[in-house]
Design a protein that fits this description.
seven-stranded antiparallel beta sheet; six-stranded antiparallel barrel; Thrombin, subunit H; 13 strands; single chain; alpha+beta
Length: 253
């Protein structure tokens, strides 16, 4: 699956992005130390490999990904209508983490879900990110922040803009600040650029003094540490492995 940027053609609308990729984003449900339910998001990057935020699954019990909302995929070149189902299935997952414990990235594999739409990761590394080229670009955020009184986990799609690009004092790698309101459950969700690739993944809201998450900034981690984590655990898609020609292959301990 190739993006419009790879084809050298125009941008996608938010509706097109949502139609093409919504079935690739799934809720992750787990239980915390007290046995209380928690929810986050994950997205499919090809070959049954999924990406989520580390804090969504680390230290949690009974971690599962919820499937069954959609049964058919769709590519950018053809239209295949998704069929929604009322029955759901929870599949246990075994998360693998970025080797740097400060990096908020986890990955997992569910091979039988490899036919879900594949979200391509952006083809740029941190050193290549020019702030001026990204600020005020349009993005689409997809994830599963809980909706009060809803009887199931519902995908939320939110338009936004990149407000700025930041380097944080507490962790390496580039982060984007996005105008969309930060909400619990968006963590691990994908942020899509108007060119049809993942800009990165939603991580923790930036805030101080234990204020509500919604009062902080939505922070999006760039794709470089996602590629590192996938490669570390042998979960890079064939397309990404070919694109990066071994750049992210583990170099040994």
């Amino acid at each position: 699956m190739q993006s419009k940027a790879e084809h050298g053609v125009g941008k996608y609308s938010a509706k097109e992005l949502c139609a093409n990729y919504s079935a690739a984003v799934l809720p992750v449900v787990a239980k915390d130390d007290n046995g209380d339910p928690a929810i986050g998001s994950a997205f499919h990057v090809g070959s049954g490999s999924f990406v989520t935020a580390r804090h969504v699954v680390e230290g949690m019990t009974d971690c599962r990904v919820e499937v069954g909302r959609f049964r058919h995929g769709r590519s950018l070149q053809e239209t295949v209508h998704f069929q929604k189902h009322d029955c759901f299935e929870l599949i246990s997952l075994e998360p693998c983490f970025h080797p740097d414990s400060n990096i908020d990235v986890a990955v997992f594999s569910v091979p039988r879900l490899s036919d879900l739409p594949q979200i391509p990761l952006g083809g740029y590394l941190d050193d290549w990110i020019n702030d001026d080229a990204f600020v005020l670009n349009e993005v689409l955020v997809l994830g599963f922040p809980p909706i009060p009184l809803a009887d199931s986990n519902i995908l939320v799609a939110a338009r936004g803009q990149i407000n700025t690009v930041v380097d944080l004092t507490v962790v390496k790698h580039v982060h984007f600040i996005v105008s969309t309101m930060a909400r619990g459950g968006f963590s691990g969700g994908v942020v899509l650029s108007e060119w049809g690739v993942a800009m990165g993944m939603v991580t923790s809201s930036l805030l101080k003094n234990d204020k509500p998450e919604e009062l902080g900034y939505m922070t999006v981690l760039s794709v470089e540490p996602i590629l590192e984590c996938l490669a570390k655990h042998g979960l890079l898609s064939p397309e990404d492995a070919k694109l990066w020609e071994g750049l992210f292959d583990p170099k040994g301990d």
